[in-house]
TrEMBL record:
TM helices/strands, residue ranges: 20-39, 354-383, 415-433
Keywords recorded for this protein, A-Z: Membrane, Transmembrane, Transmembrane helix
Name of the protein: Transmembrane protein
Organism: Rotaria sordida
Organism lineage: Eukaryota, Metazoa, Spiralia, Gnathifera, Rotifera
Domain of life: Eukaryota
Length: 489
């Protein structure tokens, strides 16, 4: 390989050694480069245009932490991908709040005025009228609130996984439920507080008129030793009674189980249960004492005890917005179609494939071969001159010969050498200044760390929240400033 015309035996031996050394070094170099290229891992990036939902889910399984799919539609209404269905307590769908039942209890209003205030034939109609109003108010509250919620914007700049999507949607639904129930109960609590604080009275109070005076005296109701002026929790059981016109003496026929009258209608109703109205025989017992008894023609249905507990208080039902359960269905497919990502980019770390290794080795083989030839010649001449004690002069001569072009072959070799050095220099510059993606994970970064990272790596910074849902009160403060007119005494 290093043979020249007119070589003597010494030069031939010299050329053989150079050839063997060259082949050995070339083989070792190729093996080292091959193993390096095969074992080297690098961060790769790939983009898929117009990915389908199936493709996204498959990519999300493999590259969940390094998958980026930008939505073409950032905001969308909840109604576009979900439905909510409330199932109200059976009492709100039963005969007990119907006009027919209320009119049945009311009967002859003139005759019912004869009965005492604790008699079901007198006060029962007011309790069920109030229960009907509460059911209607709950349904209206839910319908209005649900319509508003479904028109709320769901924001998503990146396509999120199905699990995260469902978690985020369910969290929003739970927050909305809590807010709606809170608004409903707040109205009732305000009504209770105003009624008791201002001593508002209904027609269930007794009015006493002195025949010798023009004044009308109002007597605050008392239940045994409990006075409504001091406490709003006074209760008495409602039943069926018979007494004299003054109701100073009366006889008890039947007590409606756990059905009470309080200082106000709503106080008594909330502490009551509907136990009697889960039992048809109890309802028929009440019917026997009505002036217009239906008897065998009684057509009102009792409540189903398999659906709800008969011992559940009406207050407990109200606290749940008169709702037994909710059904919400969210469609990830609808969300994905509206989001409609134009492309998905994912990053992964992998080794180079065999084809890349072969093409790379073939690409550098020519330059590597020429470089090794020149390097081996320099090394062997260096050794030979060292042995002949002419190291310095030989080294100077060798350097001069590199740039002396006596023949065309020497000129070609020198140009090869110069181009090789130039290529190696360019490769070094390219490798040194080529940008390379490096993933760095910082656990539990502080706010200052996050701000510093955001300044330097705003496009590639990703920080996942440990809590998806956060109450506004934890980071938001709202203070109204009223007009001076409303503050002047």
């Amino acid at each position: 390989m290093f043979k020249h015309d007119g070589s003597n035996q010494h030069q031939i031996n010299y050329q053989r050694i150079a050839t063997r050394f060259y082949l050995f070094v070339l083989l070792i170099s190729v093996i080292i480069f091959s193993f390096y290229l095969l074992l080297n891992k690098d961060l790769q990036q790939k983009t898929i245009h117009q990915p389908s939902e199936f493709q996204f889910k498959e990519l999300e399984k493999i590259y969940s932490s390094n998958l980026y799919c930008s939505c073409s539609t950032v905001s969308m209404n909840y109604s576009t991908f979900m439905t909510i269905e409330p199932y109200f307590h059976q009492v709100c769908l039963s005969d007990l709040i119907s006009d027919a039942w209320i009119n049945y209890i009311m009967g002859d209003s003139v005759l019912n005025d004869y009965f005492g205030i604790l008699d079901f034939r007198n006060s029962g109609v007011f309790q069920f009228q109030l229960l009907s109003m509460l059911c209607q108010h709950a349904q209206q509250t839910v319908n209005i609130s649900m319509k508003t919620f479904l028109q709320t914007q769901f924001l998503s700049s990146q396509v999120i996984s199905q699990n995260r999507f469902e978690t985020k949607v369910n969290s929003s639904i739970n927050d909305w439920k809590s807010e709606t129930i809170g608004q409903f109960l707040q109205t009732i609590k305000i009504f209770q507080a105003v009624s008791h604080g201002n001593q508002l009275m209904s027609d269930q109070f007794h009015y006493f008129i002195d025949a010798n005076d023009t004044k009308m005296n109002l007597e605050v109701r008392k239940y045994f030793n409990c006075s409504c002026i001091l406490s709003s929790s006074c209760l008495m059981s409602i039943g069926l009674f018979e007494g004299d016109p003054s109701w100073e003496l009366y006889m008890t026929f039947f007590i409606v189980p756990n059905f009470f009258l309080g200082c106000s209608q709503i106080e008594g109703l909330m502490k009551s249960t509907l136990e009697c109205f889960y039992n048809l025989s109890c309802m028929l017992t009440l019917d026997r004492y009505f002036d217009r008894s239906l008897g065998s023609s009684f057509y009102f249905s009792n409540l189903n005890e398999n659906l709800n507990s008969p011992n559940e208080t009406i207050e407990s039902i109200i606290n749940k917005l008169m709702i037994d359960s909710w059904t919400s269905n969210s469609s990830f497919s609808s969300y994905y179609n509206i989001c409609s990502p134009s492309s998905c980019t994912y990053e992964y770390i992998s080794r180079n494939d065999l084809f890349f290794v072969i093409t790379t080795i073939l690409g550098i083989f020519g330059g590597l071969s020429l470089g090794l030839k020149l390097l081996i010649i320099i090394i062997l001449r260096f050794i030979e001159n060292k042995i002949n004690n002419n190291f310095f002069n030989g080294f100077i001569t060798m350097i001069k010969n590199l740039f002396v072009c006596n023949t065309e072959q020497r000129l070609i070799n020198r140009l090869h050498f110069i181009f090789l050095l130039l290529i190696l220099y360019l490769l070094f510059i390219f490798s040194a200044f080529k940008p390379k993606s490096v993933t760095v994970q910082i656990k539990k970064p502080s706010l200052s760390n996050y701000k510093d990272l955001l300044k330097d790596h705003s496009y590639s910074l990703q920080c996942s929240c440990s809590q998806i849902s956060i109450p506004y009160e934890t980071f938001l403060n709202i203070e109204p400033h009223f007009h001076d007119f409303g503050l002047k005494a």
